[in-house]
Structure prediction request, 466 residues.
Amino acid sequence: MKSSRRVFLKDLGIGAAGIGLTSGMHGLGQTPAGAASEKMLVKDPDHPAPVPPGVDRLPLTWYKNTVKRLKSIAANNGIDVIVLEDSWNLTYFTGNFMTKTERPVWAVLPVNEEAVIWYSPGLDNELVRSWWCTEMNYYYDFPHADGGYPDQGKVVKGHTVDLLVWMLEGLKKKGFGEKTIGFDSEWPPSRMKKFSAVLPRAKAVDIGPTCVKMRMIKTPEEIALIQRAMNYFSRIHAFGRDLILRRGPDATDFEIAVATQEYGTNLILQDIKRDGRPHNAVGIKVSIGCRTGRGTAYPHPNQLHHNKVKKGDSIQISGVVTIGGYGGELYRYYQIAPWDAHREKVWDVVTESVRIQERESKAGVLCMDVAFKVHDYQVKQGPAIQKLLFQRVGHGQGMEGHQPPYIALGDPTVLEEGMTFSVEPGLFDPANDFGYNPSDCLLVTKKKGVLMGSVPYSKEWMFLKL
Prediction:
C-alpha cells in the first residue's frame, strides 16, 4: 500500500520535531535520522575554515572592494564606465540578489567614482533602493509604454519604449556620450547599431572575459562561505544515506529526495538570521535529487524519477546546496546488495578517477592535462570500461553552477589557486541499467585539489546491505 508523503515523513522520523535537529526518539535506535552516518563523515585537515553561523552572505564591503578591483582593471584598459547586464555579474559585483526575467536590468559603475546607477524595472524598486544604490532610474514594467507609470497616476498605453535605447540615452545624460564604455558581453550588430545611433562618439568595449575571470577565482571570503555550505551538505548526505538504510525497498527515489531536501532546508534555516525583509536569507538553495536503478545509467536522464528502490539497484543522491550564493555540488553513488564483479570494478575505477582528479588539480597545471590523466587511466582499464565513458571530468563551479574553465580534453586553461570545480568522472552502463556518477566541490590549491565535501569515497559508505 502506497504511503502518503505525511505518513512517509512521520515513519522516517522527520515530522515537525523529528528532522534530527531536536532530541528524542527518531528511529535508528535513539539517534536522530542522519546521526549514524554522520559519525562516518571525514574530517579533512585541508578544509578551509568555514564562516560561522550568522555570517550568511558576503557583506556589502566585499562587493564594493570587488568592484574596485574591476574598476582598476578597466581603468588600465582606458575604460571610463562599466555597464553590467548579465544576471550573474549583477549579483557577483553588486550583491543585489534579483530575480532576472525578460525584464532588462543594468547597473552602471563610473570608474572614477564610488557609485552604482541602476536602470531597472519598477517591481525591483524596493530591492534597489534598500541595498547599494546611488541613483535609480526605472521603467514601470516590460513592455514599457512611454510615460506609463500607474504608480505615479499616469496610465498611458502604446508607444512602446526600446529599453536598450532608454538606458543608452541615460548614459548620454550622465555625461558618458564620448567615453569608452565597458559592457559585460560582446554586442551583436543589431545592438551596436543602436549604440552608434545614440552614442556616436562613444566606444564600446567587451569586458565580459574580465568579469568571468574574476568570478572563476574565489577570494578567501567566498571560499569560507562555500565550505560552510558544503559542511551542511555533507550532513544532508548522511541523512539521505540513513534513509536508504532504514526504508530502502519501502520507499521511492522521489520520496527519498523530498525528505532529504526538507531535512536539509530545515537544517540550514535554523542557523540563518532573517526577518522577512530583502537582502537576508539570500542565495540559499537546497536542491536534492535521487534516482535509483535504470535512471542512474544516464548522465542526464530526462524522465521524472519516481521508482521503488530495489535490491541490486545502484542509487544516487545528488544536488546543489548554496548559502549567500556560494556552495556547490555533492553527489554520491551507492550500490545496494547484491552486486557482481563488474559493478564492483566500475565502482573502483570511478573512485580512483576521483582520486586522480584530486591529486592532479593543483595550481599551474592545465585543465586538459588533468582530464587526460583521468581519461587515460579509465581507458587503460579495458574495453569494458572504455564504453562506459560519456562525459568530461568536471566543470568550474560558481554562483551559476557551471562556469569556465572545464576539466576537459579541449580546455588549455591553467589552474589557479581559488578555482573550484565539480568532480564528475562518472561511468554509465545503460546495457546493465546502472551508473556511478560522483561530484564534489574541489578547491584548487598549490599542492593538490581539496574536496570540500566530507562524505567518504569508500565501499563502507556506498555499498549497502538492506
